[in-house]
Specification:
105 residues, single chain, globular, mainly alpha
Length: 105
């Protein structure tokens, strides 16, 4: 059965609950933090950095996470960036968590 138009919208809204921006911010913070700590799920980091975000702030955080690797390269094989880059990413986690309650409603 192929769904189209209104039927697909209704189907999507039933099975894909929309998250509040605050939940998205906390999710992003958790993904970044887990990545820094070497505890992220197999595809979490790739999904976070590869998929453009609709929310302007989340998109800016995603782009910043991508740019850190080039701006703060490391000489350690397998590391994403140097210590300064990791601190920038930790700052992004703090910003996301600080902003989450303000947008949650």
């Amino acid at each position: 059965m192929i769904l189209s138009g209104t039927k697909m919208t209704m189907f999507s809204s039933i099975f894909h609950a929309k998250k509040a921006p605050s939940a998205d911010y906390e999710d992003a913070a958790a993904i970044i933090e887990a990545f820094i700590d070497g505890k992220s799920g197999l595809w979490d980091w790739d999904d976070f950095t590869s998929i453009k975000k609709k929310d302007e702030f989340l998109e800016s955080v995603r782009r910043r996470c991508l740019s850190v690797r080039d701006e703060y390269p490391t000489k350690n094989a397998g590391a994403y960036c140097d210590a300064q880059g990791l601190e920038i990413m930790r700052g992004l986690v703090r910003e996301l968590r600080a902003k989450a309650p303000q947008t949650g409603g």
